[in-house]
Amino acid sequence: MTSTEPSAEPGPVAVIIPTYNERDNLEPIIGRVRAAVPAAHVLIVDDNSPDGTGEIADKLSAADPQIHVLHRAGKSGLGTAYIAGFRWGLDHGYDVLVEQDADGSHDPADLPRMLAALAGADLVIGSRYVPGGTVVNWPKSREILSRGANIYVRMMLGIGVHDATAGFRAYRAGTLHAIGLDDVDSQGYCFQVDLTLRTAERGLVIREVPITFTERARGASKMSQAVVAEALWRVAQWGVAGRLGRRRRPSRQKA
Length: 255
Prior knowledge:
By secondary structure, this protein is an alpha/beta fold. 41% of the residues lie in helices and 16% in strands. The chain has a 7-stranded mixed sheet with strand order 3-2-1-4-7-5-8, sandwiched between helices. It has a two-stranded parallel ribbon with strand order 6-9. The chain is globular and about 50 Å long.
């Protein structure tokens, strides 16, 4: 499949923010998103947070018609939360779907640059590991792990993306239609790599925009050893399958 031929001006934008126990972070990040991209809508996907995050989301939505809430029955993983958000956005006619963490690690002030970059791309990734990108307040061990994971992804999959595990990104609706969401069942880091690979395999244009990633100040990270292990195993499977010709080799990303 060829590029979706990105147009100069993206249409309606929905910023998808999955939440689970983010009551202290939700209102501040929503305020920052609304200030950074006033025309965009926000979809909060809450997994029945026991700390009352869902109730806060409902109050924010009641006060602002550009804020929407999708309640799910329970904690089902980041990947399925984004898939649910993508489907909601596609069903409601949004042209651009943005992934944004609730914890403040992604600076909404970077969103205008990311959306502008969609003028020549099908997927824009807010990247920590291209020139101008940086990480703040991470332990050195965590940064080494993240950088190493991305080197591993590039080597195993042959894609030229420097931050394939990044969770701050903007997709055109046409990209999500093209890559197929029905059989995506990966989670965490692996989910981001999966969708990056699918986009690359279809010859679509991926651009990386440098961002500053800041470690969360409140709440607990959802990262676990199981999430890391899943990513390592699945990337290895995809890499081997590519070498055996069982999937289409991804093309190099356009600059």
